[in-house]
Amino acid sequence: MKTVFANSAWVNAAERLILRGGGWRSVRLRVRYGLIVHPAQGPVLVDTGYTAEALTGERRGRMLRLYGALLKPKLNAAEQVLPVLKHFGLSPNDIRTVIVTHFHADHISGLSLFPKARFVASDAAWARVKARTPRQNWRHGVFTELFPADFDARLDGLSSRPHVEARDGVPGGADLFGDGSVIAVDLPGHADGQFGLLFTGLERPLLYAVDVQWLLTALTEKRTPGFPATLIAEDAASIEPTSAMLRRFIAAGGEVMLCHDPAPAAYDLALSDPEAT
Ligand SMILES: [Zn+2]
Q: How many domains does the chain have?
């Protein structure tokens, strides 16, 4: 099963905001998303990264415009989702499944580009999004204008998938394709309903742990940032237990990859020279 990750955009953040004991220097974070080609399911996206819809889209509400103005993400043209699909000879209509790890803008902004796709996401978190007012959703970092109008009808909730038990330091979760190859692992803390993906068929099992931390160092060296990072977390008290679970996975021989860590990772596509953008 092919597994690659691409970098949709760069976002600058002061190190001390994302790493306990960090300095004032600015860190250039990536915004990854993934493409897996499953032997039976075909090409499957893991989130969409940042796309123009989140930054210049006409449908953006006032709060999403403000959010973009504050974070100032810089799109990485070469590794935007459509050019990356084209690189692999794929068109948007070839994408029948998008796994949505959580509902933050940098993960869902391109969902409308895939009219034939069904969405694998937390149905429990989606039910809460639907029950909230727009203002309540903003406080959870969710901008509902980025969802396709028919998201609800195209949602395949995680709760319908069979559960695989944890063992020997390897976490359990929902078996997404019924063959044990990709397991959705709950990662409470950062965002409502966030889950990561455990790829079991690789030489060394890989857990794409999305936004548990921004930096791998924060995870491995137990340098979880405090305030104000805790302020924007969905459930700040769960970040440390979730991080500890990932450290146990690493100790058991697993590999962890994050969405935003700036260092090149083994599964990064690297179509563009990061220094040239
Ligand atoms: Zn997030």
A: 1
